[in-house]
Amino acid sequence: MKKFMLFAFATCIIFTACESTKNTTTASPATEVSALNGTWELNYITGPRIAFNGLYPNKKPTIIFNIAEKRIGGNAGCNSYGGALNAQAGKIDFSAPLISTQMACVEGMLGETTYLQMLKRVNAFNVSDTTLNFLAGNLVLMRFSKR
After folding, report:
1. Angle at 52 between CA 46 and CA 56, to 5 degrees
2. Cα–Cα–Cα angle for 44, 121, 100, nearest 5°?
3. Looking at the whole model, is its pTM more than 0.85?
């Protein structure tokens, strides 16, 4: 009888624990295009083996989303750039040519080149609170903070 009671008690605890985990949800990052709206500043980029501050000694790259006009713009560290926004439900594409100013930039040129090349590799995004991640598949290529 004691074994049966112990088994019944353990079974009740297991079912109760399973039921309580069924109803919990984890907050997933937003993939809606409207979450992109506004200005974002780069704070992480994958790839180069140079310190982030060494890549962007004077100015960190920014990206500005204008959802209403379906446009992007920003500064790549020295030169300004702009173009059409091609994004939907967590997917984003920067393969269309971007227009850019052509200022001579001695410091930060490697960072600017890296940033613009990395944008072309991005195919997805997610936004959580004040952080924007640009991804290639599941790999975070760039991370931005809301300004």
Report:
1. 115
2. 80
3. no
Model pLDDT for residues 8-33, shown as the tens digit of each residue: 444 444 444 443 333 333 456 888 99
Rounded to whole angstroms, how far apart are CA atoms 12 and 10?
A: 5
| Contact in structure between 133 and 40 (CB atoms under 8 Å) | no
Indicate the residue type of 50. I
Within a 10 A sphere around the Cβ of 53, how many other Cβ atoms? 9
